[in-house]
Design goal:
This protein has about 220 residues and is an all-alpha fold. It has 12 helices and no strands.
Length: about 220
């Protein structure tokens, strides 16, 4: 749990893509280790592996996004790359849309948005304090944080921002509908979390920061 908190702080306080990706990967590993805590239970180990694999898909996409940013702008630093992006890219240019879409894959894997959402209900196999800290409040909002932190790129790629908003909308409807028929209480909370994160993703994707980030803080 302490390693997870360290990783999350590393992710949030990062000033460049390299530190962000290190924190992003550490959070995924901590989640895998905590979900698989009861290692003699097959369902727990399988859920841990599923969470790890889906999160690695997001990690790889984020690494590619950082690679394209460095190739085009020559820096990993957030503030420098934001300034350079405004001067280098035109609105909806193919490269910046690709960068934003890769960031979205990373965000959706971490925040359990459709279609990379299947790991979160299974993650409830972990101990309840783990579910409360990681899979209902902290780690799953990292994707929302990423979209908000990278909004200068999404301003240059409104197509990618629209994709994020529509996927968030689909997730909040699908997850809330599934929660109506699930009988396991912790899984109901997982689907509820997915649904609420869908609202946050819609908020930060359409530029409604006050709504999206206020909901992120109140939900946590």
């Amino acid at each position: 749990l302490n390693f997870f908190v360290f990783s999350m702080l590393l992710l949030v306080l990062a000033g460049n893509f390299v530190i962000l990706i290190v924190g992003w990967a550490f959070v995924g590993f901590a989640s895998y280790a905590l979900i698989s805590y009861w290692y003699r239970r097959h369902t727990a180990t399988a859920a841990g592996m599923k969470a790890f694999v889906i999160n690695v898909v997001g990690d790889v996409a984020l690494v590619f996004a950082a690679f394209f940013v460095f190739r085009e702008l020559g820096t990993f630093d957030f503030l420098d790359s934001f300034d350079a992006a405004r001067e280098t890219f035109t609105t909806n240019e193919g490269v910046v849309v690709a960068i934003c879409c890769l960031m979205l894959v990373g965000a959706f894997a971490k925040s359990a948005q459709v279609p990379l959402h299947t790991w979160l209900p299974d993650a409830m196999e972990g101990p309840t304090p783990v579910s409360a800290l990681i899979h209902a409040a902290t780690m799953v909002t990292a994707g929302v944080y990423l979209i908000a932190r990278m909004f200068p790129y999404f301003e240059l790629a409104p197509t990618a921002a629209d994709i994020a908003a529509f996927i968030g909308l689909a997730t909040l409807l699908i997850a809330a509908t599934i929660a109506l028929v699930v009988t396991d209480l912790k899984r109901i909370i997982a689907y509820s979390t997915m649904s609420q994160i869908g609202y946050m993703v819609v908020g930060v994707s359409i530029g409604a920061y006050v709504g999206g980030l206020f909901h992120l803080m109140t939900h946590a």
